[in-house]
Amino acid sequence: MQAIIVKDREAGVAGLSLTDQPYPEAADSEVIVQVHAAGFTPGELDWPHTWTDRAGRDRTPSIPGHELSGVVVELGYGTTSLSIGQRVFGLADWARNGSLAEYTAVEARNLAPLPFDIDHTVAAALPISGLAAWQGLFDHGRLTAGQTVLIHGAAGGVGSLAVQLAREAGARVIATGRTPDRDRAIALGAHDFVDMGTETLEDAGAVDVVFDVIGGEVLARSAALVRAGGTLVTIAEPPATRPTDGRAVFFVVEADRSQLAQLAARVRDGRLTPVVGAVLPLADAAAAFAPEQRIHGKTILRVAEG
Predict the structure, then answer these.
(1) Engineered SS bond to 213: which of 153, 178, 200, 252, CB 3.0-4.6 Å?
(2) Which of 12-21, 40-49, 202-211, 290-299 has the highest mean pLDDT?
């Protein structure tokens, strides 16, 4: 099969190449998915598990990418929850070969059925961003109707979905970003917008939940905005500064079939719209990863047609 591999950590994006790789094997409770569309995280070439397995052993050359949408073509022993020919989408394991390949092995529990009226390119934009938004807001942030949430990076892949989910949940949504992001954030459902280029973060006022995707100074300054009993949630880095009378949570997104299904249901009925930017062929993976190629919306790699 054809796959994108990376051999050399020092080479970074320049080390990505499209090559022939062995067809994967399905272990117990796994499936082989023919990948139709795949997503990736630009910074994943810096993640330890891109280069080593869970025991710390070198696993290069490795196949990056962890979001996928496709069709089940093979069942591992004991797999009963999915069937051959079924459309699925979900999240590949962090410490194994990923989704930038024609076929990949995935634990069945990490996948959810994909309705026929959702395109694979749209579904591939959901797993990491959608699960991160859901888990950050509701599992860790405990956001409820009537509360106020401040969402950083509101026009990005995670932030844009977080804005929509928080608005649907009945929260007052304050978004942050740069000037070109204002109209996008408001269109997605934000009630207010703080322009990080012309306004100060403190203009947002006190909030019940901060959802951060940026880290650094923005994360540190956000702690002071959290009301008593509120929560600062981040996927960027463990927070060094915590709210005076609140919680601080750093988390890594986890696969969850039920949550994936709820995200897909919202896409079907128009309550949730992933922001897909460019859709490129698998061979253009290096260009998609390159920082100078960043565009509005999530870049998706199309692997198979149909």
Answers:
(1) 153
(2) 202-211
pLDDT in tens, 105-134: 999 999 999 999 999 999 999 999 999 999
Residue 237: inside a domain: yes
CATH code for position 214: 3.40.50.720
Residue 163 belongs to domain spanning:
141-250
Nearest to 95 by CA among 124, 59, 127, 46: 59
pTM for the whole structure: 0.94
Q: How far is CA 15 from CA 18, 45, 96, in A?
A: 10, 10, 18
Query: Strand pairing partners for 150?
Result: 174, 210
Give the span between the Cα atoms of 244 and 224, in whole angstroms.
Answer: 7
Query: Could you identify the residue written with the tokens 């079907």?
Result: 268
Residue 133 lies in a domain: no
Cβ atoms of 252 and 192 within 8 Å: the answer is no
Q: Positive or negative CA dihedral for 291, 292, 298, 299? A: negative
Q: Is residue 235 part of a domain?
A: yes
* Domains of the chain: total: 2
Encoded amino acid at 10, one letter: E
Residue 140: burial class (beta carbons within 10 Å; 0-12, 13-18, 19+):
buried
